[in-house]
Write a structure and sequence with these properties.
Length: 297
């Protein structure tokens, strides 16, 4: 496995070393992975994109092969937003087309809200924008009105919270990381997709579980301002997996309704890790979207 990382370059950011790859030429496209993952999740995208663009992929802070998160430490999302901004500066890649999966998509969205001038476009793959509807964990005082105004979303949040998030948190708290990963994996991928993970892909989840554990046990979800999102005039591609939980579909739909320049595509056969499950169709969608942005000048 270490051979997988041997060719990666290193970027030093105020004492933090991030492994990254920089391939191709042209307008920069930066790939930002989610939790239980690292730079390896983009192995199907870099070869497809790099003949057309300069493609930068990196392992976020605490993801393999970078220094791990200390046991019991928190993992606030703000440091990842700052890391991404500094990476863009240090690699002379701003403004860039930013592509983020899951937690990485939330990082991209938050950077867009804070510093929109850094983005040419953004592609968000099932970002967990739960704070558009409720705090995390949800409060009953928020869910009751939501059950009346938007029962489909409220029920999806309740099902995912009670059936996935709560038991995952309990398993992590009692030190049963393996069970926590099993519950979470089945919850976001579906039992068949989780059971079908290769040994290498499961190892990637296991290697990077500490950040997911910190997110489950800490207070790491940021607030989101719907009105600010409505003002984001950034071309946006939203991607979701047809086999993902209903909650993820609802979150993408809600985000698509807010963003003024968004298009949403649901890719058949894909679970939450869309870039791996439907890599050919995702690559085609992404290349088409990025090419259209280039045509806009």
């Amino acid at each position: 496995m270490e051979d997988t990382f041997a060719s990666l370059a290193r970027l030093e950011l105020d004492g933090v070393s991030l492994a990254y790859d920089d391939s191709g030429t042209g307008a920069p496209v930066v790939l930002v992975h989610g939790g239980a993952s690292d730079i390896r999740t983009w192995s199907g995208q870099v070869p497809a994109l790099s003949p057309h663009f300069r493609v930068i992929s990196y392992s976020r802070r605490y993801a393999r092969p970078n220094a791990p998160l200390l046991d019991g430490a928190d993992d606030p999302i703000d440091v990842h937003i700052e890391d991404l901004a500094r990476l863009l500066d240090r690699l002379d890649a701003s403004p860039a087309h930013l592509v983020g999966h899951s937690w990485g998509g939330l990082i991209v969205l938050l950077l867009a809200l804070r510093q929109p001038e850094r983005l040419r476009s953004m592609t968000l793959i099932e970002p967990p924008v739960l704070p558009l509807f409720t705090d995390v964990p949800p409060k009953l005082s928020q869910l009751l009105p939501l059950l009346i105004s938007d029962p489909r979303t409220a029920i999806a949040i309740l099902k995912f919270g009670l059936g996935v998030m709560a038991p995952v948190e309990r398993a992590f708290r009692r030190g049963d990381d393996k069970k926590a990963i099993e519950i979470f994996g089945k919850g976001v991928l579906g039992p068949e997709k989780f059971a079908g993970l290769s040994d290498a892909r499961y190892a990637q989840v296991w290697d990077n579980r500490a950040t997911d554990k910190a997110q489950m046990l800490g207070q790491n979800f940021p607030s989101l301002d719907a009105d600010a999102i409505k003002r984001l005039n950034i071309p946006t591609l939203l991607l979701a997996g047809a086999e993902s939980p209903p909650l993820f579909h609802r979150l993408c739909e809600a985000l698509g309704d807010l963003l003024p320049e968004a298009e949403l595509h649901v890719l058949p056969g894909a679970s939450h890790i869309v870039q791996e499950d439907a890599r050919e169709e995702m690559n085609a969608r992404l290349l088409d979207f990025l090419s259209r942005q280039a045509g806009r000048g």
